[in-house]
Fold this protein.
Amino acid sequence: MTPPVYGLMAEFESPAELLRATRRAYSDGYRRMDAYSPFPVEHLPEALGVHKDYVNLITLAGGILGGLTAYGLQWWINTIAYPLNIGGRPATASSPGVQYAGI
């Protein structure tokens, strides 16, 4: 009785050999595979069976939303919640509708 194979590692001389072996292993039923290369190998993700995910799109949306939220919070604090008359600028420039007592 042979023990089950839990892992295997191989090294290839060219990207073409890597792609050929990856496609063969995928067609033989292996699904939990990964490949490492010091440079991008075209068509390797498709050969591994990797499908497109939405991590990049979610990260972009989160960054834009976070930036807009931070800008909106700073604008609200400086114009509505706690306006300051700094440098003699008119009150309408920092917060419309707020009247200052002249000093």
